[in-house]
Design a protein that fits this description.
Number of domains: 2
Number of helices: 9
CATH class of the largest domain: Alpha Beta
Structural class: alpha+beta
Strand content: 25-35%
Distance between the termini: 46 Å
Largest sheet: 8 strands, mixed
Helix content: 25-40%
């Protein structure tokens, strides 16, 4: 069968090639209700927590674009056994998560974000008037190539795909995010790719009954990311055990800042050592207040995407830990 492709969007990003995605006509009419975002695929050596936290950031971007019509599942909510297998319902544990909501297997897609890195080295030598060597300099230029793929598992079809690249200027001023993000250029690039891809996926979504979520601000703690591991990489806990107290504090604060870029250092330090969950910032709905840690939502570990999915559910039970240590139970939203 001939697959027709249509380039649907092009966005600019300073210092990078144009960000674009292409859509491919699916083999059947789609009535999507959800999407599962894989842990980020680094095609070079990175610790496991980086795959979790970058994917979690991208889930937030996906919710911004499509959270009013689509449910999103993120890293830690399902396991991936074979990341490159397009038959995702047998290569992951995602399908039971979907069908537990009453949706059909043909009502969700898989989103695979990944990237490769190329490093180009060059050197220059200087000579004096007599041709004698007067000095030398070396330079390395790093280029990140980001990719996004949206897979429709029942047909093992890639229905949206896109890629773009960004070069890191070795002489540029460090990014303000560099204190907590080792690859800020890649993060920005993947954010644009994810938003462009989800905008296309929303076109295949079906109408659903929704409700307003409580107007509450929260921050995700880094604990779940630091506990994440896969078959090839251990969790960050082994690395953390070798750190001295000061280094560990800075490391944890940086991980909290990466997941929640709007936090200042003081708030990041406060939530960095808390258990997995969502920390309420400011006034919350009935039963929740500033500093409370939401630990579970409808029996599942609390995460930004789990909170966003509440708009498609009736009231569900939740648990929260008060700053005093008291555990309270409530109904949300």
């Amino acid at each position: 069968m001939i697959r027709l492709a249509l380039v649907v969007m092009a966005l600019g990003l300073t210092g990078c090639s144009a960000v674009s995605v292409s859509t491919h006509s699916p083999s059947q009419q789609l009535e999507l209700v959800g999407a599962f975002v894989y842990p980020f695929g680094f095609r070079w050596e990175e610790p496991a927590y980086r795959s979790f936290e970058l994917s979690q950031r991208l889930v937030g971007s996906a919710i911004d674009v499509g959270g009013s019509t689509l449910s999103f599942w993120g890293p830690g909510e399902f396991k991936v056994m074979r990341a490159d297998d397009d038959h995702a319902w047998v290569a992951t544990t995602a399908l039971p998560q979907l069908t537990a909501t009453g949706a059909r297997p043909d009502q969700a897609v898989i989103i695979r974000p990944w990237a490769e890195k190329r490093v180009n080295s060059s050197s220059q030598e200087a000579s004096d008037a007599r041709g004698r060597r007067a000095g030398a300099s070396a330079m390395e230029e790093t280029e990140y190539i980001g990719h996004i793929e949206v897979v429709f598992p029942p047909g093992a079809e890639i229905i949206v795909e896109g890629s773009a690249s960004v070069k890191v200027d070795p002489f540029a001023e460090p990014s303000p995010d560099a204190d907590y993000d080792p690859t800020p250029q890649l993060t920005a690039l993947m954010d644009k790719l994810m938003r462009a891809a989800v905008k296309q996926v929303v076109r295949w979504s079906t109408s659903r009954t929704t409700q307003e979520l409580p107007p509450v601000q929260f921050a995700a703690t880094p604990a779940a990311a630091l506990r994440f591991s896969d078959a090839a990489r251990p969790s960050a806990e082994l690395e953390m055990a070798r750190m001295d107290a000061a280094s560990l504090d800075l490391f944890l604060q940086a991980r909290a800042r990466f997941l929640n870029p709007s936090l200042d250092d003081a708030k990041a330090a406060k939530i960095s050592k808390m258990l997995p969950g969502l920390v309420v910032l400011g006034p919350g709905p009935s039963g929740l207040g500033d500093g409370d840690l939401i630990t579970t939502l409808d029996g599942q570990p609390a995460a930004p995407q789990v909170w966003a999915r509440l708009r498609f559910s009736p009231q569900v039970p939740a648990k929260a830990r008060k700053p005093t240590g008291e555990i309270v139970e409530l109904l949300l939203p």
